[in-house]
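tool=predict chain=A
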Amino acid sequence: MQGILYEEPTIWLFLLVTVVMGGWAAWMTGRAVAITWRPNYQLVLYILILGLVIRFIHFALFQATLLTPHYYIIDTIVLMAFGFAGWRYNRARQMTTQYRWLYERTGPFTWKAREGA
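tool=predict ok
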């Protein structure tokens, strides 16, 4: 997997920086976009910027290459997954709490229209 997903000498550095730190930041970014009722395309723009920040952390702390399209795309895909999961989770919570007479929650990421609404 080294060379495909990450360039650091161990997977633990990739998991720490990209998945844990970057994933948390992406989740919170998705949450912020959902709470302020902003559209999805703004989340995409924010995650693209966050991908650059994560690449810089890899570069500054672990001597990885800074401007590598391959690893930037991989980091950004991981961040997009966390960001959209955070956005969808919070949007489902918003729809079912603010419009509880119209919608009911069917899972952590989904909702449906109430019967008779």
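Residues 11-113 form one domain. Helices lie at 11-35, 40-62, 69-98.
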